[in-house]
Amino acid sequence: MYFTRMHQERSYVLALENTGRIEGMYIGDGEEKLSFRQYDRYLLLGGQGHRTGENKSGGCYQKLKEAAQAYYPDSRVAACWSAQDCITADSIPFIGAYTSDRPGWLVASGFQKWGMSSSMASAMLLCDKICNIENPYAETFAPSRFSTEEIPQIARDSGHAVKGLAKRFFHVPEETANVLKRGYGAIVETSQGKMGVYKSEEGEMFKVDIVCPHLGCELTWNPDEQSWDCPCHGSRFDVRGNLLDGPAQEGIQYE
Questions:
Q1: pTM given for the model
Q2: Which of 60, 186, 219, 243 is deepest in the core (most CB within 10 A)?
Q3: What is the pLDDT of residues 181-190, one digit of tens each?
Q4: Where are the transmembrane segments (predicted)?
Q5: Residue 139 and residue 22: Cα distance in Å, rounded?
């Protein structure tokens, strides 16, 4: 049941050239958070994070490019990519025994976008556990912990799941496949019912089942990454229905 105690978020990064060098790492605050970090000759500009499955309008990369032009007018985008992160309700990673009845199973998750530092903490905690060495921080990160402070966030996450499930039954698509623009994806109404359709720039149609095989939520189209994302628990699929991210364990190819 880890998927009920965490939600998943997407975040985006541009690798910029011709910006000059900065020392250190900088993270902004406020609604439009940006991060800046140097890697070799590239400045990594990150931001535009959102909950997985909630990027219907798109434009995340474009907004980062606009920020890059505002701060570094002479810069050039050399590469761009995105990442998915698990977020726990109390903002502390789950590191330790996966479950009490599987003593040989260990877990490290919920790093909340702090993968490099949390992975080092995980290595230390799990190494001590395997070697039967008592670690003073093990209880803090134990996956079996539970605090009443988690309840509000778990309730909000459950609300998102209920909303995603309800859309499957009450959402009526406004588009049909024949009017879908090239390079776009959408949930459309067909004679066989609702399905997800992506039309490539060459006009080829890719059809998928829009029901997430994990727990049945209706998927949403992510225009920035051309993927089908689950707003309930964060599973993701490409335009051909292949699985990209869990907790789903299978794809959504349309039969």
A1: 0.77
A2: 219
A3: 888 888 887 7
A4: none
A5: 38
Q: Which of 125, 118, 69, 135 is nearest to 96 (CA)?
A: 125
Query: Could you give the 3-state DSSP secondary structure of residue 221?
Result: strand
The helix (run of H) or strand (run of E) holding residue 200 is none
CATH number attached to the domain at 9-86: 3.30.70
Sign of dihedral through CA atoms 192, 196, 198, 199? positive
Helix, strand, coil fractions of the chain, as percent rounded to 5: 25, 35, 40
User: Which residues, 6+ apart, have CB-to-CB distance to 97 below 8 Å?
Assistant: 103, 105, 106, 107, 129, 142, 143, 144
- Distances 145 to 122, 138, 149 between C-alpha atoms, Å: 16, 10, 11
The length of the chain in residues reads 255
SS3 60: helix
